[in-house]
Every structure is written in structure tokens, then in C-alpha cells.
């Protein structure tokens, strides 16, 4: 799938969760930016322009996800104001969601360098990737216009 999809899908999921669960937490714009970055991170760490190059990408693997998780949760344990544990968990979920989407749209080398096995297949056709991007951009725009920003609020995650 496209990097736009990977970046926006976790943000849309969080916005929808907040809206329908009437959750009591809110995120500021920088926290949303961190989550967006985490969703796109595997493609940003090792850019690829073909499925063959994705199959040799270290960032699309389980060891990379584990490393990313350890780094984020360790960093969040220092009690930063913006990178809280909850935001770090959202970032890990965003990274995981990227790997899941790629597994459904061509597969990922999930155990590289220990195995060349590919997890997944083309369950989502490449012809649907651009329509998904358009829908996600539109949905994100609508949700962003209606979600409360906590940068001016007294409580944040």
C-alpha cells in the first residue's frame, strides 16, 4: 500500500475511537504527527519502489517492530510531556498496522534476516491503493476539522 495510507490509517482509527467511544483523552497536533510518522516509518526507514525491494527491507520485519517498540517505550518512560506511554503505544500500533497492511498487499519478509519467508499475499489489489488513499485523505480532513486539539486544553495524554 501507499505511504499515505500507512500514515493516515492510524490517525483515522484514533479519531474514530475518540468519537464513538467518547473517550476522555485528546491528543495535540504534535502527538498526531508522531503517530503519523510511526505509521509511515517502515517506508521512510527503507524506501522501496517495488515488492522485490520490500522483500529485502529490514524495516518491514518483526525484529524491526520489536526494536522500534523497545526504543519508544524506553523513551516514553522518561516521562516526556508529549511522548507519553499512551502515545508511544499508539505509535507501536501504527507501525504494526503498516506491517499488517503490507502483509495484505503483497507480503512482508517478517523474519528477515533469519528467514526469507514472506508473510501475506495480494489480498488487496494494487488497483485499490489510490482509492484507499483518497478516502483516507478525505476522512482525515473531515475528522481533523471536528476533533478537539488538546494543545490549548489543560489535560493531555
Automatic annotation (TrEMBL):
Residue stretches spanning the membrane: 61-80, 87-111, 123-144
Keyword terms, alphabetized: Hydrolase, Membrane, Transmembrane, Transmembrane helix
Top-rank taxon, per record: Bacteria
UniProt-listed InterPro entries: YdjM-like (IPR007404)
Keyword Disulfide bond recorded: no
Molecular function terms from GO: hydrolase activity
Name of the protein: Metal-dependent hydrolase
Coiled coil: none
Amino acid at each position: 500500500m501507499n505511504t499515505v495510507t500507512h500514515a493516515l490509517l492510524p490517525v483515522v482509527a484514533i479519531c474514530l475511537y475518540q468519537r464513538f467511544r467518547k473517550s476522555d483523552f485528546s491528543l495535540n497536533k504534535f502527538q498526531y504527527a508522531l503517530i503519523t510518522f510511526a505509521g509511515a516509518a517502515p517506508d521512510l526507514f527503507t524506501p522501496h519502489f517495488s515488492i522485490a525491494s520490500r522483500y529485502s527491507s529490514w524495516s518491514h520485519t518483526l525484529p524491526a517492530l520489536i526494536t522500534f517498540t523497545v526504543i519508544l517505550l524506553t523513551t516514553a518512560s522518561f516521562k516526556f510531556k508529549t511522548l507519553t506511554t499512551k502515545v508511544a503505544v499508539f505509535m507501536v500500533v501504527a507501525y504494526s498496522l503498516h506491517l499488517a497492511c503490507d502483509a495484505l498487499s503483497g507480503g512482508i519478509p517478517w523474519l528477515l534476516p533469519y528467514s526469507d519467508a514472506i508473510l501475506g499475499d495480494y489480498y488487496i489489489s494494487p488497483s485499490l491503493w489510490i482509492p484507499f488513499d483518497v478516502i483516507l485523505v478525505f476522512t482525515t480532513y473531515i475528522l481533523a476539522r471536528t476533533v478537539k486539539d488538546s494543545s490549548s486544553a489543560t489535560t493531555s495524554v
